[in-house]
Design brief:
Layout lengths: L1 H46 L1 H11 L3 H4 L2 H14 L12 H11 L15 H13 L4 H33 L3 H5 L3
Helix pairs in contact: 1-2, 4-5, 5-7
Length: 181
């Protein structure tokens, strides 16, 4: 009987711990996300949506910015899944690489900017908790994730662009390669 009691206590204890984590989310993370989302939307409104759009359209002309700064700004300001709509400012030939860069950046950005992809927050919190238990600081981990993410999305964007160009040529879609927006 002692084993059954311990199993029952452990089973209920698991849900009690889950309740504590959930309460922490309600009192800490959810208000943070609401404030961040409100601040970002207010900033876009203050700057003006047309100005933001024009700025993004201009910087997509440069490869390094197209696959680092543009995905970063899209994920930060428009969050997931709206960040993909920024691809509309790019010529068709760059869209596959832009998408690849942007989707690859959704996890690394979460540590410093949880509002950008709140669905990834639970993964980030699990990794960060383990890192903290091992003696690391979450702020350092978040910064390392972000910087590594920027390097990875640049590489992925560049490689995907080259693969896309090759496939466009192979399929006879050279008109896509020649178009400019």
């Amino acid at each position: 009987m002692d084993i059954i009691t311990k199993l029952a206590d452990g089973f209920i204890g698991m849900f009690e711990e889950g309740g504590k984590v959930f309460t922490g989310f309600i009192t800490d993370i959810i208000p943070l996300l609401v404030v961040l989302i409100t601040a970002v939307n207010a900033l876009v409104k203050l700057i003006g949506e047309d100005r933001v759009n024009n700025f993004i359209q201009k910087i997509t002309k440069f490869t390094i910015l197209r696959y680092t700064l543009v995905p970063f700004l899209a994920v930060f300001f428009f969050t997931n899944p709206m960040c993909y709509t920024v691809g509309r400012f790019l010529p068709e030939k760059y869209k596959p690489a832009y998408y690849d860069s942007t989707v690859s950046f959704l996890h690394p950005v979460t540590g410093l900017f949880p509002h950008a992809n709140s669905a990834e927050l639970f993964i980030w919190l699990g990794v960060a908790q383990g890192f903290s238990k091992a003696g690391g600081e979450q702020a350092n981990l978040a910064l390392m994730f972000l910087l590594t993410g920027l390097i990875v999305i640049l590489m992925r964007g560049f490689i995907t662009e080259k693969i896309s160009f090759y496939l466009f040529k192979k399929q006879g879609l050279t008109h896509i390669l020649n178009e400019e927006k």
